[in-house]
Amino acid sequence: MTQHQRFRAAIVGCGVIAESAHIPALRAEADRVEIVAAVDNDPERLADFQQQCDIQAGYTSVAAMLAVQKPDLVVVCTPPMTHADIAVRCLEAGVWVWVEKPPCLSLAEYARIEAAEQEGGPYASVVFQHRFGSGGRNAIDLISSGALGQPLVALCQTTWYRDQNYYDVPWRGRWETEGGGPSMGHGIHQMDLLLALLGEWAEVRAMAGRLARAVDTEDVSMAMVRFTNGAMASIVNSVLSPREETYIRVDLADATVELTHLYGYKNADWRFTPAVHVRDKDRIASWTDIPADVSSSHSAQLPYLLDAMQRGERPPLSGPQGREALELIAAMYKSAFTGVPVRRGEIGPEDPFSQRMDGGSQPWP
Question: What domains can be seen in the chain, in order of their start residue?
Fold first, then answer.
């Protein structure tokens, strides 16, 4: 049996996502990780979180926590505008980081995080848990191996509903604090999964609009994306859709792959429809022959991060891989606000859309 090192973890930000997703994930790996501290700038919320989650040490600043606890891993669950500073501070202190989406407000901030990493660790990994469900891993493997034929056409829809009360939280719906609208805060998970299924994108043409919510950012975005393998995809991100659904469809030469869920999937949420010329029943059955049923969740992703920490290797969804969805979204915004197509690699460090997702412009009155 492999002997695992037991790591010390601290949670920064004591809101809903920490309690509902990260605490269960960390508890599920209790033989490998111990929660030693919680951090929140609201003392009342911190105390309540400590009591509910049975965490002995609490701090109102990251600096104070790092000085005393010296954890191996910090889990960042704070609002997006704080992610980059917290991640950099922790990395510079020699601490690995697992940061909630969006990882930061811009490509420029992500570059700061990358620059603070060290060879062999510490590294910062982004929470993109939908790559890690067993159904998703199966679909990624089938497509990348060529078992379903050439990828041709795809749809990626995050059509959710958030009323105006949702945006009463001061940092939501603002470029300088959330980084963007549903593209950054909601659809980013499914767009990351689409990238895992189809690989590198090559060109984006997009539109974005503020149609119904009193926000600074968009409340709807749409994009057409061409991938380097030739596949073409349509992406929709919305917070205006009363019937909520998360949907991905990939049409390949030999099959259509579909995923329908809302906030997380199981194996049964994936569907495979063979093309008319595919009649081998054993081949078709093999597409859904998955030994385990692991839901897409924080609990599914965390073991991969702990394994990388154990080996001193770069974890999944860090560095260039963690940047992929952010770069696609930046290109979507640039195309939407300039009215021109954007190609992969076009947004360099000096580009306004590297500094801010809105490019420093005012996209609408």
Answer: 7-129+299-315 (3.40.50.720), 131-295+325-343 (3.30.360.10)
